[in-house]
Amino acid sequence: MNYKFLVTILFIAFLAFVPRLYKVDNPIGDWHSWRQADTAAVSRNFIKEGLTPLFPKFDSFFVLNEIGEPNPNRYFFAEFPLYNILTYPFYARFGVNEIFPRLISIIASTLTAVFLYLLVRKFSSERVAILSGVFFAVLPFSVYYGRVIMPDPLHVFFSVLMLYLVVLWTEKGGYLWPTLAGLSATAMILTKPYGLVFALPVAYLLLRKWGTQVFKLPQTYLFAAITLIPFILWRWHIHQHPEGMFGTSWLFNQGNIRFTGSYFRWLLFDRMNRLIFATGGFVLFWFGITAGRNRKEGWFYYMWLLAVLIFFGVIAKGNVTHDYYQLPLLPIGCIFMAKGFEFLAMYGRGIKHRLVNFSVAIILFLMMLAFGWYEVRGFFNINRPEIVEAGKAANLLLPKDAKVVAPYGSDSAFLYQTNRYGWTVGGGLIQKFIDEGATHLVAVDFDSDVNQWMDTCKIVKKTDKWVIVDLKNCHKPKVDKVDLDYFPTIDDVRM
User: Fold this and answer.
1) Taking Cα atoms as reference points, which of 355, 484, 393 lies closest to residue 430?
2) Chain segment 327-342, per-residue pLDDT in tens
3) Which terminus of the chain has a smaller tally of CB atoms within 10 A, N or C?
4) Do the beta carbons of residue 125 and residue 296 sit within 8 Å?
5) Are residues 345 and 485 located together in one domain of the fold?
6) Distances from the Cα of 25 to the Cαs of 93, 149, 277, 303, in angstroms?
7) Cα torsion at 364, 366, 367, 371 (round to 10°)?
8) Where does a domain end: 347, 378, 409?
């Protein structure tokens, strides 16, 4: 056994696993809590309502689609619920606890670092391979998003695993490796359909190995069938239930933002430079791009990067709006950072020159850690702990079949804490929700609308931070007339 190889894998896995345990017991109320709450609700509802992977449900009756079609069944057709299926056995055996889905993300992110190392050592030096895994393991942006309750860490893992298996296919042939690569590829695009852009680096690897003869190989069609058929069937299935699908047209180019100055400012300066690679890593990234390529690497890394950049360009508004959309950049970004570090640290004329270069590389690495942590440290915070407190009280005091209005700016995190189904906005729409079956209002913001219902209806419990109101035990409601034909979609509020 190659003990050095085993120690390297364990070292990278340790570096990735341990930092991601930071605040692993956080309630759902940290950064992007709305997306985490929606994902967690699907897993919890598999326990409450049965394991129905073809019909995942979240907690909200909120309108998802762009045409305003009601969603009375609370369908949540954002992606195939593979992440939630993996969570189900833990919930079924040990009970619902958000630590378990976080651990699934942590394990997926840890395995990504390991397989990134295994993949890169097929093309580059051992130094670059180790550094790639280490950078992915410790990059603060990667650490935070490596423990969120979202399918994205799983998607990134399957993208790296798929590429590694395709490389093994080109090396060993046969049917096993294209089958496994196809399974990884279909898992990748079922969790996030924009994974289709990875056809570019896959095509490069296959064409480099077999040229146009690849189109005569039955393994090619086996790989394509395993990759695409489950995805096509899933898309066909969810289009039979458009009420449960998110409106997605805005993701592409809402406001004609694509390739404008604002677009480049957000993605290059704010995201890549400030947040993701945290200045020091961004410098290393550009050194890596210009450092050249060896014969084994060819254009593989550049095709991989180009695929991600195509995704950035096509889904322009989505990438500008949400920082987690850039997670597919992390593996290839870490590879180029590693190549940049090697280029700086290992080459130079004479000892003094190399010592200066190595010192600069170390300083850039430390800047990446320091600035990166400065940017993401607030992501872990629960900025409104009262939603957790109020949610626990509602779960304890309200009937199991209560339908709750939990206004929180369309963020599902508050509704999730109540462990009830309901709505995530309030205001003048509360009367509409009552007509649709709402039984209670749980609020942490005492605005004029909440105060009005407090004056009109029985208060179940109130503190200085939150209130629970019985909407079925009221005097004549004193609400202003509202346009009940207007009902915003989830994207109207979350924009």
Assistant:
1) 484
2) 999 999 999 999 999 9
3) N
4) no
5) no
6) 18, 12, 26, 39
7) 150
8) 378
